[in-house]
Amino acid sequence: MSLFGGNSHSISEEEIDEYSDGTVKLRNSNIELMDQDILYHLALGSESHDLHEMFGDVKFVCMGGTPKRMENFAHFIMGEIGYKLPAGTKLEDISAYSYRYSMYKVGPVLCVSHGMGTPSVSILLHELIKLMYHAKCQDPIFIRIGTCGGVGVEGGTVIITEEALDSHMRNAHEFTILGKTVLRPAKLDKKLARELKALASEDDPYDTIIGKTLCTNDFYEGQGRLDGAFCEFTETDKMEYLEMLSSKGVVNIEMESTIFAALTYHAGIKAAVVCVALLNRLNGDQVNAPKEVMHEWQNRPQTLISRYICKTLAQKGQLKSLSRGSIKSPRRFKLVQQESQAHE
Ligand SMILES: O=P(O)(O)O[C@H]1O[C@H](CO)[C@@H](O)[C@H]1O
Ligand SMILES: O=c1cc[nH]c(=O)[nH]1
């Protein structure tokens, strides 16, 4: 019997046909009937802003927990794809006046902070999916660039999620809608995950692996930590739990992957989750690596995603046009191309 019973709505073959022009179709007919759609938490609206003009060229929507990480990523990707801002302008936080999320646009790349945990990511995804719809974006890809705890995996390792599991080990996300439980499949794009893995280089001074990710609703008790304000289990209980996770192929734990996978899949949008481990949970609970070390670690998923974006744009012949003739780091990109071809 299907995990999703009668209340799930996974995409059928006919529905996939709906997406064949590449634009994002909303599965909510109410939106079309509204005079305007206010994307409240992004400080944008379908009448107050020309969303097609502002965002119609977006191809990659990259998300991560903190505003600073996403601002850094925006600057980094700008250099990598050689994007030049119009003269006299600087990178601005488009959603600054929402005081909720931060959003930066670098040509076809949107960089958005999502906060911590399911409710925060869920609200953002509803509004970003509607933004893609209003802007008539074609085939956007959503990528979460995060941090996590490794399970048998050392700090600094980059982990690409192949399957997101909830705390009951289901490849699904549980919603409560009108007081009823609705389970939706939490499917990420397997081909995209493999493509990302192929962009890891043997010269990278760290490992990049693919595995299952456990998504929890809490950082402390929910992830089996002994160091929260409360703890009603023993160290032995914790280790048995982590070993059980490991025996089922779980390599990391974080807090957004199932909702991210479930909502993007429900919208027919290809998605991936790439996180760097901040510690190996088999060795402890406290995140105590030095700040500079953690900062460098957090660049690693960004490097992988940048390789993917550069490769995709180059394949479409769009890399040079972004920089109006000058690719800032051609040597680096050539290297990346060689690496990915070698892996293919
Ligand atoms: O680094 P980010 O993207 O915030 O993700 C991870 O870090 C937070 C916990 O510290 C959780 O949101 C978890 O999923
Ligand atoms: O252990 C960790 C580290 C980062 N993020 C998490 O959710 N858990």
Automatic annotation (TrEMBL):
Catalyzes the reversible phosphorylytic cleavage of uridine to uracil and ribose-1-phosphate which can then be utilized as carbon and energy sources or in the rescue of pyrimidine bases for nucleotide synthesis. Shows broad substrate specificity and can also accept deoxyuridine and other analogous compounds. It holds the Pfam family PNP_UDP_1. GO terms for molecular function: uridine phosphorylase activity. SUPFAM superfamilies: Purine and uridine phosphorylases. Pathway: Pyrimidine metabolism; UMP biosynthesis via salvage pathway; uracil from uridine (phosphorylase route): step 1/1. Gene3D superfamilies: Nucleoside phosphorylase domain. The keyword Transferase applies. Phosphate binds at residues 100, 144-147. Its EC number is 2.4.2.3. GO terms for cellular component: cytosol. It comes from Bactrocera dorsalis. It is an enzyme of class 2 (transferase). Substrate binds at residues 223, 225. One of its GO terms (biological process) is UMP salvage. Keywords: Glycosyltransferase, Transferase. This is Uridine phosphorylase. Residues 59-309 form the Nucleoside phosphorylase domain. CDD domains: UP_hUPP-like. The lineage of its organism: Eukaryota, Metazoa, Ecdysozoa, Arthropoda, Hexapoda.
